[in-house]
Amino acid sequence: MFTTQQYVVASSLDEAYALNQKPRATVLGGCGWLKMGRRAIGTAIDLSALGLDRIEEFDDRFELGAMVTLRQIETSEALAAAFGPCLRESVRHIVGVQFRNCATIGGSIWGRFGFSDPLTCLTALGASVRLHHAGLVPLSEFIRMDYDRDLLVAVVLPKAGQRAVYLTHRATQTDFPVLAAAVCRRADGTYCAAVGARPQRAALVEDTEGLLAGGVTDASARAFADFAADRLTFSSNLRGSAEFRRHLCRVLVRRAAIQLEEGQA
Ligand SMILES: Cc1cc2nc3c(=O)[nH]c(=O)nc-3n(C[C@H](O)[C@H](O)[C@H](O)COP(=O)(O)OP(=O)(O)OC[C@H]3O[C@@H](n4cnc5c(N)ncnc54)[C@H](O)[C@@H]3O)c2cc1C
Is 95 in the pocket of ligand 1 (CB under 6 A)? Predict the structure, then answer.
C-alpha cells in the first residue's frame, strides 16, 4: 500500500496538472495498481470531481473520460453497438466485477502495461489519448512515449465504421494474458492487428501487403497471422516462452481475422 503526505481533490484540470509537476506528486485513478506498490507519495491528486467518469458519444467519436471504469466500458451498450463485443471482451477477464468497478481507463492506459488488454484492443481500433498538456496523441505513438508529468484526460475513439475481434490466451480465467491480439477491419477495407502481452506493450501491424484485401479465407488469415508473427518481437517470462508467444500470435491473429469475416465482431 502507498502512503501520502497530502491528498487533494482537484477542482480543475489546470490545478491537477500544476500539482502533478511537484516531484513526488501522483495522480490517482482507481488505485488498483497503485495499492499493490509501496510508493511514498508527496501529493496524491484525485480527479474524481472533474466529471471525467462519463462515456460521451459524438457524431464522429466516443470520448471515454479518464475516470471511466473498466466495468462502464464492459456494460456500455453504445460502445457495443458501435464496435461489437471487442471492448467488453478486452476487460471482462480482468480480476472480477468489484475490481473493474474501481479500475479506470485512465490508469489502465497511462500505465502502458505490457499485459494490458484494453491498450491492445484500443490500439487496434485506432484510438488516441487526450493529454492535458500534449493534446491529442494516437495510442500507437503514446505507447512508445516515456512517462512524464502530463495528465490523461480522455481516450478518444473514432466512429469510423471499424470493427475488431479481440482474443487472448490466459493460463487461467482471470490471470494476466499470455498473449493478447485484436484484428481490426476499417471501413475502407484495410486491416491491422494489435498484439500485446508479448510480454512487451501492444504493437500494431498493418496489412501493408494487402494479404486480406482479397477477402478473409483460411489461407489469407493464416498468411496475415504469419506476417504479424514474423514482424513482431516476443520475449519469455514466467507466463510463457518467446517461442510459445509467437505460436499463439499465429493462432490468435488467424482466428480473430476469421471471426471478423464470420461477423462475430
Ligand atoms: C491483481 C491485478 C490484476 C490485473 N490484471 C489485469 C489483466 O489481466 N489485464 C489488464 O489489462 N489489466 C490488469 N490489471 C491492471 C488493471 O486493469 C488497471 O489497469 C490498473 O489497476 C490501473 O488502473 P487504476 O485505475 O487502478 O489506476 P491507478 O492504480 O490509480 O494508477 C495507475 C498509474 O496511472 C497513473 N494515473 C492514473 N490515472 C491517471 C491519469 N488520468 N493521468 C495520468 N496518470 C494517471 C497513476 O499515477 C499510476 O501511476 C490488473 C491489476 C491488478 C492489481
Answer: yes
The residues with which 240 forms a beta bridge, in sequence order, are 237
Cα 207 to averaged position of ligand 1 atoms, centre (Å): 31
Residue nearest to atom 49 of ligand 1 (CA): 111
Question: Whose Cα sits closest to atom 20 in ligand 1?
Answer: 33
User: pLDDT for 179-209, tens place per residue?
Assistant: 999 999 999 999 999 999 999 999 999 999 9
Residue 265 pLDDT exceeds 70: no
pLDDT at 57 over 70: yes
232 pLDDT more than 80: yes
Domains of the chain: 3-46 (no CATH), 55-158 (3.30.465.10), 163-261 (3.30.390.50)
Residue 85, C-alpha cell as written in the block: 463485443
Dihedral pair phi/psi, residue 204, rounded to 5°: -100, 135
* Cβ–ligand 1 contact at 107 (below 6 Å): yes
What one-character DSSP code corresponds to residue 72? H
Q: What is the mean pLDDT of residues 159-164?
A: 96
Is the CB of 74 within 6 Å of ligand 1? no
**How many Å lie between the centroid of ligand 1 and the Cα of residue 102?**
10
Q: Tell me how far the alpha carbon of residue 221 is from its chain's centroid.
A: 23
pTM: 0.97
**CB-CB contact of 86 with 182 (8 Å):** yes
Mean pLDDT of the chain: 97
Q: How confident is the model at residue 217 (pLDDT cuts 50, 70, 90)?
A: very high
- Overall residue count recorded for the chain in this entry: 265
Distance of CA 188 from the midpoint of ligand 1 (Å) = 34
* Residue type at 236 in one-letter notation: S
